[in-house]
Amino acid sequence: MSDSAGRDGAPELERLRLRYVGTCAVCGRALEKGTTALYDRAARTVRCVECPPRETSTAVDAGTAGASALHEYERRRTARETRVKAQLGDLIGGVALALNGEPQSIRAWQRGSVGEKKLGDMLAGIEGLVVLHDRRVPKTRGNIDHLVIAPAGVFVVDAKRYAGLIQIRIRGGLFNRDERLYVGGRDCSQLAANMGWQILAVQQALTEAKVDLSDVPVTPVLCFVDGEWPLLLPPESFKGVRLEGTRSIKKLVGGSAILDEAQVERISRILASSFPAK
Known about the structure:
Number of strands: 15
Structural class: alpha+beta
Oligomer: single chain
Largest sheet: 6 strands, mixed
């Protein structure tokens, strides 16, 4: 390498084997000692051989909020219509479908999609955030509704469009105290437990990319899009999971800055690569 920039102004990069561990300046992936990489001597950074230069790198695929839930709703609705009309014929089957309406098991997917989109639209208006929507978790059948990468840290957000009062009730007695999360009189405690595997997946992806988790808090959040909150002492968390609405979540993700702009970008690329859009 003779110069730090080529004829078009882009930096020229030296191909070499790393003598020490490094991190790709483009995608954020950890590069082990001995890996063949490209070194920008002027910037003193390295990048993967496969990655394009930062100037021409593609933007992170943010995904579409609620896309997979909407797809599942349409799939189930179409399958039901096909099944009923096959049994009763197009005319009678169409009348039966219109009279009976859609079952709750199908409507729930449509409601979930609307809730995720509503939250996604709200988060899009906050500066300084990178929000990844509807992310596939490899080797599982699950997905993550929203990943928010902010100066305040990483937030794993599960959007719920549940109506009714949000409260924590205490069961049991002095020696067998049992806290339960209720929404509209419905026991929703399992929602918090279901976030455990999502947090572990995100933490594992960051750890594998050599991100120090002691410097990057990963916070689970249940966001109730249509829920009602008590006027006095509304619950803030349950079993280690933050409980937020569409207003309060703005304050949460906009908290005190822990990460700088470069860290937000790097972590965003790591998580976008680890959890592709569905």
